[in-house]
């Protein structure tokens, strides 16, 4: 099976694409068409950070709306922000 290559808008390079649409609706199709697997994995890590640091309830419509907005900003605009006061753990 051939691997699908996309020009990733996040990473600005050709890279392996996702194997299926990762999100419902037109945004999911846009992600499938123009975001690489690598960039999607970066988003999933960032999303986990946002959920944990902001103590979001993913069942809450406001939280889901916030995450969708941040996903679009992270993947397409490069403007998603770290949670207020976030400090990475020193290794």
Could you provide a short overview of the structure?
Helices cover 48% and strands 9% of the residues.
CATH architecture title:
Orthogonal Bundle
| Arrangement of strands in the largest sheet | 1-2
> What CATH first level would be assigned?
Mainly Alpha
Q: What composes the largest sheet?
A: 2 strands, antiparallel
Report the uncertain regions: none
Can you characterise this structure?
The protein is mainly alpha-helical and 91 residues long. The chain has a single domain (5-77), classed as Fe(II) trafficking protein YggX (YggX-like, Orthogonal Bundle). It has helices at 25-34, 37-53, 61-77; strands at residues 5-8, 13-16. It has a two-stranded antiparallel sheet. Strand 1 and strand 2 (13-16) form a beta hairpin. The radius of gyration is 14 Å and the shape is globular.
List key phrases describing it.
single chain; mainly alpha; YggX-like; two-stranded antiparallel sheet; globular
Write the layout of secondary structure elements.
Blueprint: E1 5-8, E2 13-16, H1 25-34, H2 37-53, H3 61-77
Antiparallel strand pairs: 1-2
